[in-house]
Design goal:
The complex is a heterodimer.
Chain A lengths: L4 H6 L16 E12 L2 E12 L3 E6 L5 H9 L6 E6 L7 H4 L3 E4 L11 H12 L5 H7 L15 H12 L6 E5 L7 H16 L3 E5 L3 H7 L2 E6 L2 E6 L1 H5 L4 E6 L12 E2 L4 E6 L2 H14 L5 E6 L3 H10 L5
Parallel strand pairs in A: 3-7, 3-8, 5-6, 6-7
Antiparallel strand pairs in A: 1-2, 1-4, 8-9, 10-12, 10-13, 11-12
Helix pairs in contact in A: 4-5
Chain B lengths: L1 H13 L1 H20 L1 H7 L2 H30 L2 H6 L5 H30 L6 H24 L4 H7 L1 H17 L5 H6 L3 H12 L4 H5 L2 H18 L7
Helix pairs in contact in B: 1-6, 2-4, 2-6, 4-6, 4-7, 4-8, 4-9, 4-11, 7-11, 7-13, 9-11, 11-13
The chains are: A alpha/beta, B mainly alpha.
């Protein structure tokens, strides 16, 4: 299978080999029946999923759900207790084969406090065997002014940004981000997501974990939801939220008539309507309020969010 | 590997606490021995002073510094960071210990050079170099093994004491009392046979074949230490 020149160019400076051998497959990560145990504790159980080229896949879960353990096996930092994980068709522990094509942002910074920001990026960049410039990646995360500052003098947010800079050094084909926006202010979070978007436009595949569900909802192509070591849900955000109703909330004056559709009173005059037809029911409610001259106070309508899926999942009994 | 070594050298030179605590004392101790060489020569021999210098540098500049460095790099997750790249574990480890090893070799070379200038030159320089190399490889391997049971740089102040003080004690015992009695025990202790080899190389008077055999126990300690290191060394902090 040949690789069109335009495609190669679009994939960025270090996309060489993307159309070679195993890369004729579109599957970048293949996790099959992965188990990770620590003594008697089963951190990850029978986890299976694939990540396709160009996707942004978010692996989400509660604390202790097993997502970091799973991610560490994918990164090659941890060996699977059983099952197989292939990255670019190779074992993730095969560093020479995988790492030049894979950028990793760790959950903890892991930089030497005595090196400067630019020295840290230069060192890790060289060792990844990708080509890029330190200035480019530092400017990407707005750390150009801190290039000569020792890591020990950087703030927590700046260290996270430095971590991201090393992960995207050389525009790798695959970027693994472990809670990338934790500890970042809103401007830095936006800037980081802009950089992720740019990577995706360059053809990179992204795998991430995050506690910020709204970020996953907004940016992920597909989401895997882990709970107590198991992958309990997987799919696009619409697929995951489809099974749960959206909500309309409002409150009424004491003398107002009862609402036109079934609603659960939250308190004396506050109502919650759960619906799978948000637009139609909202229109019906607004028409009713208009006809009866009813004031819908504190009216809000919310589509189903990943938070709701999470909460529902938490109350479900574990599968046998 | 050289990129890691270069960055490691920068980190060592910027860490004044490490420099003062681990690299300066061996120089000071060696200067004391050289200044009082007449006293120590009467106690043992010139070879004894050379052996003390080699193992003072080996125990503190090399062994203690390597244990402290590896524990610190693991604690800050720098080792994990390095393992996130394309380089092998062997290259990472080599890069990390190369600057300390080079500094220690330079130290011992300069100190012994100064000692030879003010006293007598070693009788067999190639044998002395072989003895120093074997002793340093042993201390390096023991450092990797000790780093496996050392959780932090602060913890290293405790975990390094038994071997660093132990080898210095062995050096003094072997070099002062000789190996006429309890020879097997003295030669099997870490640093024992290397001390005898250094003394022989500096003082002379012992057939080369008899001296070369003394490399075997030292290299056996290297094997033991490497096995222990491969069993106990951890790249990440214990969870």
């Amino acid at each position: 299978m040949s690789c069109p020149r335009d495609d190669v160019a679009a994939l960025g400076a270090n996309a060489g080999g993307l159309c070679d051998g195993d890369m004729t497959s579109t599957t970048i990560i293949d996790v099959d029946e992965l188990n990770v145990t620590y003594g008697d504790f089963h951190a990850v159980q029978d986890l299976s999923f694939q990540v396709e080229r160009g996707e942004l896949y978010a692996l989400l879960g509660t604390n202790g759900a097993g997502k970091t353990s799973a991610l560490e096996v994918i990164e090659g930092h941890r060996r699977a207790s059983s099952g197989t994980v292939r990255v670019f068709g190779a074992s993730p522990t095969n560093r020479r084969a995988v790492r030049p094509r894979m950028g990793i942002m760790l959950q903890d910074s892991g930089f030497s406090p005595d090196l400067t920001a630019s020295e840290s990026v230069r060192l890790i960049g060289r060792l990844t065997e990708r080509s890029d410039t330190v200035d480019r990646v530092l400017s990407l995360v707005d750390l150009t002014g801190k290039a000569d500052t020792r890591v020990s003098s950087l703030s927590g947010g700046e260290k996270r940004r430095l971590d991201f800079a090393t992960a995207v050094y050389g525009r790798p084909e695959l970027v693994v981000l472990d809670e990338p926006t934790t500890g970042l202010d809103i401007q830095s979070r936006d800037a980081l997501w802009d950089a992720v978007q740019q990577l995706r436009e360059d053809g990179s595949t992204i795998v991430l974990t995050t506690h910020y569900l709204e970020e996953a909802q907004q940016h992920a192509d597909r989401v895997g939801l882990m709970h107590r070591g198991l992958l309990r849900r997987q799919g696009t955000v619409p697929e995951l939220t489809r099974a749960l109703p959206a909500t309309i909330q409002f409150s009424l004056a004491p003398n107002a008539p009862a609402p036109p559709m079934h609603s659960a009173p939250v308190s004396d005059r506050s109502y919650l309507i759960e619906t799978f037809h948000l637009q139609a029911d909202l229109k019906q409610l607004l028409d009713w309020a208009d006809v009866h001259a009813v004031d819908l106070r504190e009216l809000s309508a919310a589509p189903t969010r990943l938070d709701d899926v999470f909460r529902a999942m938490d109350t479900e009994p574990a599968p046998a | 590997m050289l990129s890691i070594a270069r960055s490691e050298l920068s980190q060592i030179l910027r860490n004044r606490a490490l420099l003062v605590a681990n690299l300066i004392p061996p120089v000071a101790a060696s200067a004391f021995f050289i200044y009082n060489r007449d006293v120590f020569e009467r106690l043992g021999s010139l070879g004894y002073i050379a052996a003390v210098i080699v193992f003072t540098v080996g125990a503190f500049s090399l062994y203690t510094t390597v244990v402290t460095t590896l524990a610190a790099r693991r604690q800050t997750l720098f080792l994990k960071r390095l393992r996130s790249t394309a380089v092998s574990d062997q290259a990472i480890m080599s890069g990390l210990v190369l600057p300390v090893s080079a500094i220690s070799l330079l130290q011992v070379g300069l100190i012994l050079g100064a000692f030879a200038t003010v006293s007598d030159r070693p009788d067999n320089l190639p044998l002395l170099i072989a003895a120093i190399a074997a002793a340093f490889v042993m201390m390096l391997a023991l450092a990797m093994a000790t780093a496996g049971v050392t959780n932090s740089p602060e913890h290293a102040q405790i975990t390094t004491l038994p071997l660093s003080l132990g080898t210095i004690a062995v050096v003094n015992w072997v070099a002062i009392t000789g190996t006429e009695s309890l020879a097997p025990l003295k030669r099997l202790l870490p640093g024992g046979s290397a001390t005898e080899l250094i003394v022989n190389a500096w003082n002379g008077g012992v057939p080369l074949a008899d001296s070369l055999v003394l490399l075997v126990p030292t290299l056996a300690w290297v094997v033991v230490a490497v096995v222990l290191a491969s069993k106990f060394f951890r790249w990440e902090p214990r969870r």
